[in-house]
Amino acid sequence: MVAPPEISVIVSTYQRPGHLRRCLASLAVQQGVAGRFEAIVVDDGSLDETADVVDQFRREGAFRLKFCTHPHDGFQLARCRNAGIRSSLAPYLLFTDGDCIFPPDHLQRHLEARRHGVVRAGDCIRLDESTSRQIDEQAVRSGGFLAMVAPLRKSLRKTYLKSLAYQLMRHGSRPKLIGWNMAAWREQLERINGFDEQFRGWGCEDDDLAARLRKIGARVATALGYTQAYHLWHPPHATTPGRWQDGPNVAYFKRPLVLARCLEGIRSRSLSQVSTRIAETDQPELARRLRAVFHESAVGPELELLVWPSTARFSTNSACRVIIAPAAALIPTAMVRAAHSVVRYDAATGAAGAIEALRGALQAGGAGSAPPAATRDAA
Q1: What digits encode the pLDDT tens for the residues 50-99?
Q2: What's the rounded Cα separation, in Å, for the pair 367 and 196?
Q3: CATH of the domain at 209
Q4: How far apart are CA 40 and CA 155, in angstroms?
Q5: How wide is the angle at C-alpha 169 spanned by C-alphas 163 and 170, nearest 5°?
Q6: The domain that contains 305 carries what CATH number?
Q7: How many structural domains comprise the chain?
Q8: Residue 192: CB atoms within 10 Å
Q9: Torsion of Cα atoms, 89 then 35 then 97 then 177, to 10°
Q10: 58, exposed or middle or buried, with CB in 10 Å at 0-12, 13-18, 19+?
Q11: Are residues 119 and 237 in the same domain?
Q12: What is the pLDDT of residues 10-65, one digit of tens each?
């Protein structure tokens, strides 16, 4: 009987078979991990020879290899990575991209870096176009590419030292998780339902994953003291912005209402599956309607709703805390600060309008908004 893998390597790719070939070649020559890992290539709907490249490596049999794909419908990296999670078997998962190559001890070093409850934030050295062209499959298999990149190996030293400082100060968003070299435990990813598939186009899906992992108490620590990867040059994707803040996903990433366990992830969840606490309120009809939509639970709720006006208070610091209030209502500053989001609705629409506003905030991030200035004045 074949033992289950200790680590699953999830490789995302789209329309770059030459890069993928070199990526898989670097996995085929990993040292000290024979029989201990599997790789899952998750393809975003390539129409070239990507599947043939995977078949070739599968026939070689140097390591366990799977292939997942779906029809292309825009850049859907989160969807790809979730498919990889579902197809994987190991308790520990390493995410990377098909345009990355690795030193021969990369997987061994990631396995050595495993710590219970810790997510590892790795990184890649970006290779220029000329160097990337010189690194062919033979250079990868033989390890000859390491001499080509030797002058660059210390280029992440500053990032490493900064990451250590962030860890010591328990920074809220650093070290940064980057999807081309990061590792996490399966149980952590399942607790947050993986990557949020509402991220489409370039960017922010890994920032969002990191934020939600931290919400459940995961500790993010750098992997740069153990290993680093190398990113092969290619032209930027059409949705890649000139500046991060101009990216197509930034507005959704900055939404104020974020469930730790996303709705569209490894599994698709309805609002009725979101464990919720609904505080006592002076609006019993709205509370009744909310209870018909959400799954009310007093034990470890994901979402806590406070319908304004109310004399109740939020009961926990861990749940996603939301005030639902008529558009014109004034809310005391202390209450606003205690909430993650204030969802406003037109009082004329009653309970139906309130629920629709909340539904929009949870499902698309469009209806939730940062509290307007008026809500910061004590009522």
Answers
A1: 999 999 999 999 999 999 999 999 999 999 999 999 999 999 999 999 99
A2: 18
A3: 3.90.550.10
A4: 29
A5: 85
A6: 3.40.50
A7: 2
A8: 24
A9: 70
A10: middle
A11: yes
A12: 999 999 999 999 999 999 999 999 999 999 999 999 999 999 999 999 999 999 99
Beta-sheet pairing, 303-307 with 320-326: parallel
Residues 228 and 366 in one domain: no
Domain boundary among 220, 253, 286: 253
pLDDT at 372 over 70: no
Task: Examine the pLDDT at 368 and tell me if it is beyond 50.
Answer: no
Distances (CA, A) of 26 to 13, 67, 366: 15, 17, 43
Domain extent at residue 160: 7-253
Radius of gyration of the chain (CA): 23
Residue with tokens 């470890």: 300
What is the length of the chain?
379
Tell me, what DSSP letter sits at residue 149? H
Structure tokens at 241: 């912005």
Report the C-alpha gap between 367 and 361 in whole angstroms: 4
Asked if the structure places residue 259 within a domain, the reply is no
pTM over 0.70: yes
